[in-house]
Each structure stands twice: as structure tokens, then as C-alpha cells.
Amino acid sequence: MLIVSVLPVMAHATDTLSTIRERKTIIIAHRESSIPFSYLDGHQQAVGYAIDLCMKVVEAVRRELKLPALAVRYMPVTPANRLQLIAGGDADMECGSTTNTAERKRQVDFSIAYFIASAKMVVRTDSGIKNWSDLRDKTVVTTKGTTNAKTLADRGQIRSLNLKLLESKDHAEGFSMVEQRVAAAFAMDDVLLYGLKASAKNPADFQITGDSLSTEPYAIVIRKNDPAFKQIVNRELSRLMLDGEIHAIYEKWFQRPIPPQAINLNMPMGHLLRSSIRFPVDDVADLPQ
């Protein structure tokens, strides 16, 4: 059963399909270091799980518009500017590791969730840190513009941990701060931490730990008030899920060696994602618990 929220057509409704038809190009906003969702390979090309899913959507748009020669242009974005660039029309959809939240839906809209992560932290193996209470009076970093920044700040205040909070420009910089011992921990979604750890020079030097701070449903970001484009995006993602095609795409990026360093996350699909694939939704409140 597919449950899709359809937004009412407003006076200033967006018409992404007409824009794409006019320019004969679809613009995909992507991340540069969100392994394995959206990142640059050894040839500086955007690749990843989210990119593969978005390319399926591109094919659906080609069919809908009857534009076999529809071009694809990629636009690198950061956690700090990704929502603004989608809302402003600079790109047609963002394919990365962006969490669907009620607050963000005031600015943009989201597709069906294609991944569900848990917020944890990566620390050095020799740090002795096992859980959040072990961070008292320590320096912790998280990526600027992510949901983890607010969650971590709230956690520190509630538990009076006296954390010194730093913000990195992207995930790679956050991990590097732990690597260089500038910060004791990097708090981020677990799957991103697994990717960063696997690609480190010495993966055994790091461990992912801590109770889950939150559940993070990742989705394609699109502009608000565009039910026609959203319907195409959700229809194609739903097809991939209900037909089972998404499992092969997941296995490719999470359970096999991936470019450019042939790392393998060895991360089986979690039960929350398996449940959400059976009943695809784009409303955070309806996701399986």
C-alpha cells in the first residue's frame, strides 16, 4: 500500500516538469562526501545509492516528458546550502543523505524515505568512550546544517555534560577532527560513520558507539507545492520498493566493495528500512517504529 501526501495546488505552485522540459536538462544536487549515498569517485563523478535511485527517477521523467535526450547536470551542495538551493530553484532535486523533518518541510518537500539511519558517534578506539555520558567536558563535532547538530546540543543541555560543540563544513572534515584528536567524537548518522571509518587509513583505530540519539529517514528533496513532480518521484521510488528492485541497489552500495577504494560497509538492511519498503510513505509520522 502506497501512502502519498498530495499537496494542494497553490496560487504560486511550482512546475518543475515544465522547467525541465524547457531547458531539456534536469539538475541533481549532490553531496561530495556522503558515502555511500552521494559522493565523488576516483574520477570526480557523483556516485552512490541515492544517485542510483535518483537516476531511476530521471528515467521516469524522461518517459513522462517524452524527452529521450534529457540531459543531467550535477550541482555539488553542502548541508548548509542544500535546502536553500532546492527551494530557490537552482536544482530540481537533492540526492544525498538529507533527513525528512517537519521543520524542513516548511521550506522544501520530501519523497518517500529510501533509507532510515540512527544517530550515533565515532570515536577513537583508544578513547575509552562508550556512550554519551562519557563525553562530559569533552569536545564533540557534528556537521553544520544537519539534524544532529540540534539533537546533540539538546542532549548536552539535558544531561549537563558541559560539551564543547564544534561544527564541521562536511562529514569528511568532522571525521578528520576526530582522526587528528581535535574532537573526542563526531556525532552523525551511523551509516555515514561506517562509510567514513571504512575509508580511513586505519579503520581499526575507530569505533562507532553510543545509544541511538534519533531516527533519521533520508529522502529526495524537492520543491514545495509541486504535486505533479512529487507524484513522479514517489511513483518511481514506490515501484523500486514494491518490485524488489531496490534490494539489488542496496546490496551494491552497502554489501559490496564500492569505489574508489573498494571499501565494503558490510551493512545488512535494517529492520526499519525493510518495514518501510513494504509500506512506502513520505510522511515522517507514518514511518514504522
Shape label: globular
Tally of DSSP β-strands: 12
DSSP strand content = 15-25%
Number of H- or I-type helical stretches: 9
Assign the CATH topology of the largest domain: D-Maltodextrin-Binding Protein, domain 2
Provide an overview of this structure.
The protein is built from nine helices and twelve strands. The protein is of the alpha/beta class and 289 residues long. It folds into two domains: 16-116 and 216-286, D-Maltodextrin-Binding Protein, domain 2; 118-209, D-Maltodextrin-Binding Protein, domain 2 (3-Layer(aba) Sandwich), CATH 3.40.190. The strands form three sheets. Strands 7, 8, 9, 10, 11 and 12 form a six-stranded mixed sheet that branches. The protein has a three-stranded parallel sheet with strand order 5-1-6. Helix 4 links the parallel strand 8 (139-143) and strand 9 (164-168). Helix 2 packs across helix 7 (227-242). It is globular and about 60 Å long. Residues 1-12 have low confidence and may be disordered.
Short summary:
By secondary structure, the chain is an alpha/beta fold. The chain has helices at 16-23, 49-65, 82-87, 147-158, 171-179, 190-198, 227-242, 245-254, 271-278; strands at residues 25-30, 33-34, 38-40, 46-47, 71-76, 93-95, 109-124, 139-143, 164-168, 185-189, 206-209, 215-222.
